[in-house]
Amino acid sequence: MEATLNPADLLTIAGASIAAIVVTQFAKMLFTLTRRVVRIVALVTGLILVAAAIGPMLIVGAKLVKAFQAIKTAFIAVQLVMAANPFILLAIAVAAIAFLIFKNWDKILAFLKAVWEKIKEVFDAAIDFLVAAIKTILD
Predict the structure, then answer these.
(1) Would the pLDDT of 69 be above 70?
(2) Residue-level pLDDT at 43
(3) CB of 85 within 8 A of CB of 94?
(4) Of 103, 77, 101, nearest to 88 (Cα)?
(5) Does residue 116 have a pLDDT over 80?
(6) pLDDT tens sequence across 30-68
(7) Which residue in 85, 114, 110 sits closest to 24, CA to CA?
């Protein structure tokens, strides 16, 4: 007896294959990008150190070195996460968004309250207009 696949199975297999290829290629591109960023960070760090030795660039240079080191660390972390599983990256992104919402809840709540007040104003004005129009028609 010969096993046959229906079109839905073929589409599922093709979709899974394409997804695997896309994730693999994305991880390769991210790895290449990370290597390049590391090289750029090393170059920029060297240039900043030379500039810092010249004079007052020391303070600015130190801040830029820290910033580039943080960027380097972030790229390495993203690379590690992508190498592990792209769903972990999604979970980290969701957690980061949840943290930002939690941290800024007062601002978000104030914004939502302001939006709600505007919506109420618009609906109140629309209802007042309709009531006035109906009264005019009936009179």
Answers:
(1) yes
(2) 78
(3) no
(4) 77
(5) yes
(6) 778 778 877 877 777 776 666 556 655 456 556 667 777
(7) 85
Residue keyed to tokens 């660039």 = 57
pLDDT mean over 72-84: 74
Neighbours of 51 (CB within 10 A): 15
Q: Which residue did the predictor score with more confidence, 85 or 135?
A: 135
Q: Which of 31, 16, 21, 19 is nearest to 82 (CA)?
A: 31
Q: What is the 3-state secondary structure (H, E, C) of the chain?
A: CCCCCCHHHHHHHHHHHHHHHHHHHHHHHHHHHHHHHHHHHHHHHHHHHHHHHHCCHHHHHHHHHHHHHHHHHHHHHHHHHHHHCHHHHHHHHHHHHHHHHHHCHHHHHHHHHHHHHHHHHHHHHHHHHHHHHHHHHHC
